[in-house]
Amino acid sequence: MIFLLVWLLLIGYAVYLAPGSGANNPVFPELLNGNIGDIDPLVLAVFNSLGIFPLVFLTLLLLNDRMRWPAWPFALLSFGIGAFSLLLYFAFGIRKPEKKLRTPRWLVRFLRSRFWLIVLIIMWAGNWLTLLQGFSFADYVDYFFASSLVSVMSVDWLVLYGLSIYTVHRFYPGARYKGLAWIPIIGPVLVLLVNRPLLKHQK
C-alpha cells in the first residue's frame, strides 16, 4: 500500500501542488531549443539523471523479472514518466516470485556484464562532471519555484532515489556492501559490480 500511496501523492503533487508555471516555464523552452548553456548546471544534471535512472532500473528489474507482472513495460515507461510507472509495478506487480525469469539469457549476461555496468558509471560521472562549470543551490531553488518542470522532476528524482535503494535490498538481501546503494543513482550499479559472482548464480 505504501507504493500506491506514494503514487497518489506524486500525482496529486504534480497536478495540484507543484509550484511554478507550466505556461511560462523558464526551463522547458531552453531544453527544446538546445540552449543548455542558459540553464543552471545543477538543474541540467538533475534533468539528465532522470534519463540515467531508468537505465539503472531497467538493469535491476530485468535481472529479476520473475514477479507477478512483467517488469519490462514499467521499466521502459520510466524513461518517459519516471517514478509514476515504477510505483505501480512495486505496488501491484512485485508479488509471487515463483515464475521463471522472463528476461532472455543473452540480455541477462549483457546487463550483468562488467562492460554494461561500467558504461552506466561513465554516464553518471559524465553527467555530474558538468557541475564543475559551477552551480548555485540558490538558483536551483529559484527554478524550483518558477518552473513546474523542475518542481516535479525534483520530487520524481527523490522518489526514484528511494526506490533504487529499496530495489537493491529487495532483490539482493545477501549482497555485500549494500550500503553503496545509498549513493545517488549509481549506488545500485556499484552493488551489482562488486557482487558479480553472486549475479552469475542467479537463475
Automatic annotation (TrEMBL):
Keywords: Membrane, Transmembrane, Transmembrane helix. The chain crosses the membrane at residues 41-62, 74-94, 114-132, 144-168, 180-199. Signal peptide: none annotated. The keyword Transmembrane helix applies. The keyword Ribosomal protein does not apply. This is DUF998 domain-containing protein. It comes from Metaplanococcus flavidus. The lineage of its organism: Bacteria, Bacillati, Bacillota, Bacilli, Bacillales.
